[in-house]
Amino acid sequence: MKAKEFDQKFEQGEDVLDYLDLDKAKRPNLEIRRVNVDFPSWVIQALDKEAKRLGISRQALVKVWIAERLERAA
Predict the structure, then answer these.
(1) The predicted structure's pLDDT at residue 32
(2) How many helices, marked H, and strands, marked E, lie in the chain?
(3) What angle do CA 46, 49, 55 make, to 5 degrees?
(4) CA-CA distance, 3 to 16, in Å (whole number)?
């Protein structure tokens, strides 16, 4: 099927899932990339204390806080 036909079916509200290979589907800009950041020990201790209070990992806390800050800045 050509892209134009697919777009027409989609825009007309037809079910187009049968035309997609969902095993190979990717969401743009959501691939994981590793970043290393060095913090002083007092920052790590404060992060660990807050993460424990919330019942989440340090990594999850940092991800959430950075995402929230970026959303506010946008």
Answers:
(1) 86
(2) 3, 0
(3) 140
(4) 12
What is the Cα–Cα distance from 19 to 29, expressed in whole angstroms? 23
pTM (predicted TM-score): 0.62
Q: What angle do CA 29, 69, 63 make, to 5 degrees?
A: 60
Amino acid at 65: W
Contacts of 61 (CB under 8 A, 6+ apart): 47, 50, 51, 54
Confidence of residue 5 (pLDDT cuts 50, 70, 90): very high
Taking the CA atoms of 10, 13, 17 and 18 in sequence, report the sign of the dihedral they define: negative
Token pair for 69: 């800050």
